[in-house]
Amino acid sequence: MTKGNSLFKIDKKIVLITGVSGQLGEAFAKLYLENGCIVYGVDIKKNKLKNKKYVFLKSDITKKKNISKILNYIIKVHKKIDILINNAAVSYFSELINRNDKEIDKTYEVNLKSVINLITEYFKIHKIKKLKSSKIINIGSVYGVNSPDFKIYSKGDRFSSDIYGATKAGVIQITKYYSVLLAKHNILINTISPGGIKNKKIQNKKFQSKYSKIVPLARMGNVEDLFTALLFLSSDNTSYITGQNLIIDGGLTIK
Predict the structure, then answer these.
(1) Confidence of residue 45 (pLDDT cuts 50, 70, 90)
(2) Hey, which CATH number is domain 8-254, 1.10.1040.10, 1.25.40.10, 3.40.50.720, 3.30.200.20?
């Protein structure tokens, strides 16, 4: 794990992370806990993470009423939320001609609609209770910026779908939109867009090798490659950065 130095000090922050039971979400929770934060993790499936400063909340965030309930609960306990991480995401891997409306709707609801609702529902509370400040970090994707290189995918590989990329492009755009709209309320909103992150459970070595060959740094990313960006954007010392999309992809999108 990575501990922030005094420049990126974030201890005692109240952090909310959606999609906390996934590969990225659980790693993010551990990072913030290691740096002295109190972490609330939200997902429909519970993970095995145990820490006295960690609270798991089982909830379907595609429902606006659930988001409102979660936000109100945390703020009732702590009087604030310092950092909100919109990390929850899904994708389907059916062939284009076999894709159905249910898959499209679910991808939109989790990846984009929930982000919009979390930001807007938080803003309502922030304004009513006259909270001081907060930081929102949305998790985008390089596929919200570039199209995948389909030559590296073989039959059975989990290639990025059209609707997944569209929702992640939407996340990047609403980051810009809300960062301007909510700036006067001292709500800073940024996006981190990872490239391909290595996951041995769902990627075979052949795919990892092919992906690495199209990346200038010649490797897939590790979850840890995202940690410095999270600490950076979470720190009080980045109080003049908003509306940005920080791409962490080994140079993939500049080719």
Answers:
(1) very high
(2) 3.40.50.720
